[in-house]
Amino acid sequence: EKFKDGLSKTRNSFSDRVNELVSRYRKVDEDFFEELEEILIQADVGFDTVMTLIEELKREVQRKNIQDPTEVQSVISEKLVAIYDRGDNTSSSLNIQESGLTVILFVGVNGVGKTTTIGKLGHQFKSEGKKVLMAAGDTFRAGAIEQLEVWGERVGVEVIKQAAGSDPAAVMYDAIQAAKSRNADILLCDTAGRLQNKVNLMKELEKVKRVIEREIPGAPHEVLLVLDATTGQNAMIQAKTFKDATDVTGIVLTKLDGTAKGGIVLAIRNELDIPVKFVGLGEKMDDLQTFNAEQYVYGLFA
Ligand code: GDP
Question: Which residues hold GTP (predicted)?
Fold first, then answer.
């Protein structure tokens, strides 16, 4: 239900348009595919991904000898799921350690929803009975530490912090010691997201990662890149920058509730080969969903 509500904007513009197209045409012809192509592009599915999709659709329509546009509908859904699920890097499950501490690092530029996502995920882990800690690693942005503390209080998770402006690597060190001494299961680490100074930002990230790696072999177990779905192609550019700079293991795509361009999920997966692990569908603590391509696509057309 929540999934359906959260995707209502994409559904209204994308799915409703596909439905309208399907009902308007008498037979599946070249014009039909051209209009479909346009709808997909406008949903931010991404040019390359759209081309692949249309090719495959045409082939399938020919193979099954489909004439009636209403029959194309289910093939579209199938192909959208298949585009996402191709390859083996599609699992949305997290690399959680069976025993000992799991460290999850969150990266991404300011304003994308990093802090909010950490809060939501902290809440999820807590309700699974796990002991969670948060590290206030964004010591740069004014108010970032306080904002994480607000989330910590809201979901009942302790936040490890230092004064604003201090060394984020030192915060991580502290947080790891605290997590060890409290026998925590999960440590969620915030990081700074200023992109004005890309080189410094990436250096800082590297340093933070090194401290984590040194203190806990095999950590960080996940590096989740948070992207704002409403920023479209900008999100793609950010993803490429971060992918080049660090080993991103998954994407959290936030604010899908605020965009009609939900096709960006497919573009990210297809063009970057990084799995989308979570989607944000609102500002409240329950508004984070594990991503599943089938559920997503069929949710759009439900
Ligand atoms: P940060 O700078 O990356 O830590 O971003 P914040 O966590 O502070 O989020 C920026 C704004 O986006 C806040 O107003 C959040 O409430 C909002 N936000 C975050 N995730 C979502 C989401 O999934 N949906 C919506 N509608 N808003 C979100």
Answer: 108-115, 190-194, 254-257
